[in-house]
C-alpha cells in the first residue's frame, strides 16, 4: 500500500477512514511479525511511514468528531 498524503486523507469520509485504518493496521502487524522473526528485508523502511499514516488518519477522525 502506498504512502497516503494529507490531502488524500482529508478527502475520505469517516467510514472510509476506518476501513483504511483497519487495512493499514493489519499490514503493520504483518510487517512487525516479520521483523521480529528476522525475515523482513526489503520492507523494513515501511514501518515508520505506516505508523505516521495511522497517526494522520486518527487525527482526521478526531477532527471530524469535533465538528
From TrEMBL:
One Pfam family of this chain: Ribosomal_L29
GO BP: translation
| UniProt entry tagged with the keyword tRNA-binding | no
The organism's superkingdom is given as Archaea
Q: What GO CC terms are in its UniProt record?
A: ribonucleoprotein complex; ribosome
User: What are the recorded GO MF terms, alphabetically?
Assistant: structural constituent of ribosome
Q: Which InterPro entries is this protein grouped with?
A: Ribosomal_uL29 (IPR001854), Ribosomal_uL29_sf (IPR036049)
Matching entries from Gene3D superfamilies are given as: 1.10.287.310
Q: What keywords is this UniProt entry annotated with?
A: Ribonucleoprotein, Ribosomal protein
Query: Key word Nucleus present in the record?
Result: no
Which family does this protein fall into? Answer: Belongs to the universal ribosomal protein uL29 family.
What is the protein name stated in its UniProt record?
Answer: Large ribosomal subunit protein uL29
Q: Where does this protein come from, organism-wise? A: Marine Group I thaumarchaeote
List the top taxonomic levels of the source. Answer: Archaea, Nitrososphaerota, Marine Group I
Q: Which gene encodes it?
A: rpmC
Amino acid at each position: 500500500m502506498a504512502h497516503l498524503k494529507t490531502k488524500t486523507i482529508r478527502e475520505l469520509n469517516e467510514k472510509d477512514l476506518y476501513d483504511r485504518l483497519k487495512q493499514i493496521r493489519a499490514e503493520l502487524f504483518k510487517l512487525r511479525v516479520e521483523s521480529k522473526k528476522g525475515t523482513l528485508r526489503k520492507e523494513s523502511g515501511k514501518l515508520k511511514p505506516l505508523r505516521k499514516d495511522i497517526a494522520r488518519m486518527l487525527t482526521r477522525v478526531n477532527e471530524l468528531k469535533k465538528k
